[in-house]
Amino acid sequence: MRREDAADTETKKTGGTSRVRAAGINIFFGYAGTVITALLSFVLRKVFILHLSDTLLGVNGLYANILSMLSMAELGIGTAFQFALYKPVAEGDTETVKSYMAGYAKVYRVIALAVAVVGLALTPFLKYIIRNPGDNTLRDLTFYYLIFLFNTVSTYFVSYKYSLANAEQKNYIQTNVITITKFATVILQIIVLLATKNFYIFLLTDMVVQLMQKVVVSLYFDRRYPYLTDKNVRPLSDSQKAEIREKTGSLFMHRIGDALRLQTDSMIISAFIEVAMVGRVDNYLLVVNTISSFVNIIFNSVISGFGNLIATEDKDKQMVMFRVYRFFAAYAYGFSFIGFYVLLTPLISIIFGSKWVLPALAVQLFLADYYFKGERIVLSNYKTAAGVFEPDRYLALLQGAVNLVLSLALVRTLGLAGIYVGTVVSGLIANITKPVILYRTCFGGSVRAYFIRNLEYLAVTAAALVPSILLGRALSAGGAMSIPMFVLTALGITVIFHAVFLLFFGRTEEFGYLKQVITGRLHRTAKP
Prior knowledge:
The protein is mainly α. The protein is built from 21 helices and no strands. It has a domain of 237 residues. The longest helix is centred in the N-terminal third of the chain and has 49 residues.
């Protein structure tokens, strides 16, 4: 073997090992942070329910969703810049990194101003989307909203700096900051609720802690990357600007579509049912998002690794890793979907009380969308890492429109379930079209095998779901499930799912690769 070939092989080996190691570090800190914040969040929610009204819980959830929708003003610029940073960071091109980060900072300052203006313009319309506000006056509801708005706007002055660490595959930095901030915020908010039972002080506590965090984080990144404060920065070239504009234009469509599909449900619930129902839905979301965040940590931790993989490896290697990624998603989302289907409502009843339980059909539709979301996350994350935003730029708009039309048409007849019909149908549009786009643009192969394997994943999940449902019914004996029976059911579901899943997929290449990673053999075989 020629020396150059040997060096190239060694680079690829160490690069692959480095990506696995970086992802492992990100996952470790992600899990630690999630456990801490999850426990505190449940305690905080319980204290909130005991000391404040159902309506305020709904208002809290509604405003969080409104401000998330306002964040679409970011237009996908952050994702476009993040993608642009992968290559110069991997190559150690500091001057190009400086150029991108300087441009990033300028654009985000403009976005902060835009979000502030649009957010203030929405305040006169709050009274139209909050049905049955209880004892809360319009003045109070407006001031609550302005505190949420300030938290969102101030984020744009710091958040772009995380992109540099993430491009270096050091996502754990952001995870640790979020964990520490969440810990401090929740502890202080619990104290505030117990001592004052005042929603104003509750919100202001969060605002002050977040503001302090943003100042500290900004100073930290300026010290970690001193060149971020350099005044002598080379402007981005015309081609670099054009690439950012092109990807941002496509991502803008994605952002609008995502906002219409994902952020409008709470507003429809508040306007057509009542704002207190938003709080009940939020309890389900808290449980689902907390548990699924353990899965998403892994997905999010490898995005930057995929960006590096795509920049340095051939398509065959990319395809292998994509299949492994998809296999893990099928496993994780299949397992958690079955657990949620059988145990989510009993868990809500145990933690918060039976009055917070949602209609069964609405929960089933919500969980159906959750299952199919697992596939969409894989496709979206890989497309993001590859910088493929243009081909499906109008698809997100179609999804958003379908969701909005169906939700508004069905909410009056089906109630909460009607809203989730729109969510499921609009989501499935992406499940069908995105694989075709991804294979055409990234792999250049047929997508037929992808859909066949997905049907296999769905069939195996269904095969494990049926006995799990029967087990849950048998152990609950038709009534409320006790804590011991809940634990026993969870253990039974775990055994059933893994037995069925391994029976069908235990001999696949994807399972073999994951087994190597878990046992550490991948690291040893990568050594020279």
